[in-house]
Structure formats: structure tokens, C-alpha cells
Amino acid sequence: MSAVIERPVKKLVDGDRVSIYQPEQQGLIYPEVPVFDDVKAHRQHLKERLVAACRAFAQQGFDYGFAGHLTVRDPENPGLYWTNPMAVHFAQVKVSNLICADHEGIVVEGRHAINRAGFVLHAAVHEAHPEIVAMCHAHTVYGTAFAALGKKLDPITQDAAAFFEDHVVIGDEAGQVAVEVKAGHKVANAFAGVKAAIHQNHGLLTASRHSIDAAAFWFIALERCCRQQLAIDATGIAPRLVREDRARYSREHVGSEYIGWLHFQPIWEQLKATQPDMFC
Ligand SMILES: [Zn+2]
Fold first, then answer.
1. Residue 1 lies in a domain
2. What's the whole-number mean pLDDT along residues 226-240?
3. In CATH, what number is assigned to the domain containing residue 163?
4. Ligand 1: distance of its center to the CA of 139 in Å?
5. pLDDT tens track for 84-136
6. What's the total number of domains in the chain?
7. Which among 171, 82, 166, 160 is positioned nearest to 119, based on CA atoms?
8. What range defines the domain where residue 65 resides?
């Protein structure tokens, strides 16, 4: 994994049309994607953001017992992943109780056990897609309910359009506790070129080629979109959909990895200010 992550200034050079990138904003306070020369500092940054992602999941009510796992690839050893400890509430994950595991789910650093069945699913995706640096999975109320329908999200809003042609439904072999191990390769195949998956009868997954920040935000967004679509569907009235070309345009401009990263920054700042025990 490269220590250098794409900086927003590149968007300016590329002439991105979204107004927040316009040159007149330069010099004003604005989140910047960090760049690291030192691998230890990079690792510490990734661990802190992973903890923040777990705390954000707690705030969102994404916990379900010990279910749910978030992973981020180690910056020095790409075959190793940092993840949340088994049977620790998302609200109590901190830098000091994170664990590091290999593809097989063997813990190589940390004091806690790992949810191996769930982790193997992540590991299969990470192994098949070296460019995927972070993943999130949880058994959320609305995402899991929507997943039972076995269908994709419709572009009912600009927010939902962020997932237009950028998510997949993994249709079978889910819904059983032990299936996550067997489903690993199938899930890995499904994640080619998309940022999210709806695993039928199971839950939601997101992956990022950019950051844990982006993976976490797109997970929050995906759950929200599932909730909105369930609400619309419950009316029994067919919604007006965003036109395909506009949905595609929206996805390119508000559904990118960088935009996901940027959306996570206020969440990070709020958690940093209110939950200093994250860094213990
Ligand atoms: Zn699961």
C-alpha cells in the first residue's frame, strides 16, 4: 500500500466541476488527506481512524452483539489487517485493543481474539483485491432488512445515486451463521470495481481503495439509503427515479472515494473532541 494518498488538490488540477474544489477556496480551512513519509506515523493514523470508524458505528446503532467487523490494511505489511477485537462493543474499541491478523485470521498482534468467521470474509476480499485498503461490515437493522429483498437500491435520491452501478447484490448462500467462511470467495469476486455489496439475508459490506474513512462513511450512507428505500417502498407508490444519466453523473461527483473520505471528516472531528479515550 502506498504511503501517499491522493490529495484533494489533484482534483483542482483535473478541473473537477464540484464547487467545493474550486481554486478560490484554496487557503481556507479545509480537510486535507494526509500524506505520510513515516510508516509508524501512517500506521498510528490508520489505527486511530479505524477506532473512530468503530465509534461512529456505535453512534449509528450498528452494533449487534459481537457481529460486525471493520478492517484496514497495514501500510507496511499488505498481508496484515488491523481490525476490531472480538466481543468488544464498537463504543469501547480503542487504539490499544485493536488486533492485527493475517489472511487466515491468525492474530499476530494484540491481546484480544478475532471473529474468525467474519474476518475470513474480509480477508478473502482483501486478498483478491490488493487495491482495497479498508472494509466495513455489520448487521444493521435497515440494511439487513433491505438485503432480504435480494435487489439493488434504486436511484431515488442524489444520495442513493452515489451507489448507482457501484454496488452489487450477492444473492445466495447467505443467511446461515457458518456461511461467511464459504462465501468469502464469492463475496471477493463480487467486489470487483464496486464500493458496496448487499449480502442477501445477511447485511451490508463496503470496501474502499482509498481509506477506512471512506469505507466507513459509505457504509453509513448505504444503511441510510436502505432505510429511505424501505420507507418509500412502504408507501406502495412508485417513486420518481433519478434519470440514469444524472444518476451516473451524481455517482461520479458525489459518490467518489474522496467524497466519502471528506464526509467522514466532521464525524472524525466530533469524535476526537468528545471521545478522547479512543486514543488510549
Ligand atoms: Zn456478518
1. no
2. 98
3. 3.40.225.10
4. 6
5. 999 999 999 999 999 999 988 999 999 999 998 888 888 999 999 999 999 99
6. 1
7. 82
8. 9-279
